[in-house]
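Reminder to self: tokens first, then the designed residues, so the page reads top to bottom the way the pipeline ran.
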């Protein structure tokens, strides 16, 4: 494998750190496969975004896909946590060390890995890399897994407008980036599609390069409380682990919560479930599992893979049947209009 001395040095120097930050993953249990021994001897490493495993949202969705691969395909998998406030150099070292230590597939969760992954992937052409939520072109050994977040968010906005009693709803974003702008744009457009003059509160927890907005539940709760105090009675978040604070505020103040990325009704506490109307999900778990499966079959391809409403890559959840059933017919009609191209969903506010 061709690699620069600088990258190789960084990889070797980081090996000890990597060992200390690896999670007790499904990989270690699932490496023995689900029942029958797999022909695959693939080693897969997955690096989490800010907030790490346990966010009940974005990272946990990736973890479900990794766990499924370990259990059903018999691949050896290991997952790695980020450090709070880490620099790009730490991400680059993490990815390079996985490649140096013999991982066949390295998956980076989150757009913050874009530049580090592009650098490392060029140095390790025999390793296949994948990144969630960022488009990287020009490298045959990189697969970009990207989603139409704005489409699912449009449905979340429509659901909010159909259930608010005050014609006043809110959006809490983690970090104000182009990606999270897609969530905001879809949500606001969906709400206004239903009620043109609805009030939509929009707030962000942090600004780049500060990524703490994805891992600060206390601040998420504070911001949601402020929106509620201003009149919002339905609040949607795209804030990773910080969304857990938004849900806490919903329970304390008895307003409606809309989750993101994972089905946050399913992973909520029992006292929280009645407050969860729906979640705008993207099937990161399915994308991760299918990528690993393709690798076991020797068919993994580089390039950009897009997941939309039309192929089930994004959607809204219906787990809280009592809450969602009164508006489900309207949401399904809007969903079909998006799929058919009758509704064009914006990607920028």
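Designed residues (349 positions):
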């Amino acid at each position: 494998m061709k690699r620069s001395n600088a990258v190789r040095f960084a990889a070797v120097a980081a090996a000890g750190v990597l060992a200390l930050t690896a999670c007790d993953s499904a990989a270690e249990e699932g490496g023995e496969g689900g029942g029958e021994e797999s022909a695959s001897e693939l080693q897969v490493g997955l690096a989490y975004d800010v907030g790490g495993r346990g966010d009940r949202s974005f990272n946990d969705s990736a973890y479900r896909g990794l766990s499924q691969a370990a259990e059903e395909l018999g691949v050896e998998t290991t997952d790695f946590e980020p450090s709070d406030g880490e620099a790009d150099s730490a991400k680059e070292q993490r990815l390079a060390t996985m490649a140096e230590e013999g991982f066949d597939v390295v998956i980076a969760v989150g757009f913050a890995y874009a530049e580090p992954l592009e650098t490392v992937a060029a140095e390790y052409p025999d390793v296949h890399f994948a990144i969630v939520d960022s488009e990287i072109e020009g490298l045959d050994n990189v697969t970009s897994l990207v989603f139409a977040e704005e489409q699912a968010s449009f449905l979340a906005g429509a659901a909010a407008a159909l259930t608010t009693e005050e014609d006043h709803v809110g959006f809490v974003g983690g970090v104000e980036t182009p990606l999270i702008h897609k969530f905001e744009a879809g949500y606001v457009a969906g709400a206004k599609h239903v009620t043109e003059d609805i009030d939509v509160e929009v707030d962000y927890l942090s600004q780049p390069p500060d990524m703490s907005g994805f891992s600060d539940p206390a601040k998420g709760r504070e911001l949601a409380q402020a929106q509620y105090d201003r009149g919002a009675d339905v609040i949607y978040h795209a804030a990773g682990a910080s969304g857990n604070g938004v849900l806490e505020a919903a329970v304390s103040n008895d307003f409606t919560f809309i989750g993101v990325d994972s089905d946050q009704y399913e992973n909520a506490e029992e006292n929280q479930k009645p407050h969860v109307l729906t979640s705008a999900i993207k099937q990161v778990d399915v994308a991760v599992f299918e990528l690993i499966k393709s690798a076991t079959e020797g068919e993994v391809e580089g390039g950009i893979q897009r997941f939309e409403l039309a192929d089930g890559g994004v959607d809204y959840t219906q787990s809280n049947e009592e809450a969602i059933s009164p508006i489900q017919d309207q949401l399904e009609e809007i969903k079909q209009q998006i799929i058919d191209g009758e509704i064009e969903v914006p990607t920028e506010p």
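Confidence is low (pLDDT under 50) at residues 1-21, 24-39.
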